[in-house]
């Protein structure tokens, strides 16, 4: 699966951004999708994920209540709406896909930089 992420940028603390990730595969609706991030000097962490039909979501504690993951299977796109951004949200954000029935994300987008200024 080829994934193309977009929507990153520079925003002030308290602001919002929406990331998008579009997939190339016809079977997008069969994949669970996730957003990860990696800040300088830190390990990549799972921020949010959504099941293939959108019926179930997961959020890291650090973003719960501020970020919302959603998907549009007709557009083969997953979104990450980020509100009330904080400087500690600064990172490269990656979208990823894993096939239903598996636990490993094995398809990755190229990453998009999010920078939150204080």
Write a compact overview of the structure shown:
This protein is mostly beta strands. It has no helices and eleven strands.
Q: Structural class, please?
A: mainly beta
- Mind telling me the C-alpha Rg? 13 Å
What is the residue-mean pLDDT, rounded to a whole number? Answer: 96
Order of helices and strands: EEEEEEEEEEE
Shape from CA axes?
Answer: globular
Q: β content, as a range?
A: over 45%
Distance between the termini: 36 Å
List keywords for this structure.
single chain, 118 residues, mainly beta, 7-stranded mixed β-sheet, 4-stranded antiparallel β-sheet, globular
Task: Describe the structure in your own words.
The protein has 118 residues and is mostly beta strands. The chain contains no helices and 11 strands. It has strands spanning 3-6, 9-12, 17-23, 31-38, 45-50, 57-59, 67-72, 77-82, 91-99, 107-108, 112-117. Strands 2, 4, 5, 6, 9, 10 and 11 form a 7-stranded mixed β-sheet that branches. The termini are far apart.
Helix and strand layout, with pairings?
Blueprint: E1 3-6, E2 9-12, E3 17-23, E4 31-38, E5 45-50, E6 57-59, E7 67-72, E8 77-82, E9 91-99, E10 107-108, E11 112-117
Parallel strand pairs: 2-11
Antiparallel strand pairs: 1-3, 3-8, 4-5, 4-9, 5-6, 7-8, 9-10, 9-11
């Amino acid at each position: 699966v080829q994934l193309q992420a977009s929507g990153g940028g520079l925003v002030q603390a308290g602001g919002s951004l929406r990331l998008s990730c579009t997939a190339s595969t016809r079977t997008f609706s069969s994949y669970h999708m996730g957003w990860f991030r990696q800040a300088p000097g830190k390990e990549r962490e799972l921020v949010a994920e959504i099941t293939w039909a959108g019926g179930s979501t997961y959020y890291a504690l650090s973003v719960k209540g501020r970020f919302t993951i959603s998907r549009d299977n007709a557009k083969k796109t997953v979104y990450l709406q980020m509100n009330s951004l904080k400087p500690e949200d600064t990172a490269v954000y990656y979208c990823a896909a894993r096939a239903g029935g598996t636990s490993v994300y094995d398809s990755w987008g190229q990453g998009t930089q999010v920078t939150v200024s204080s």
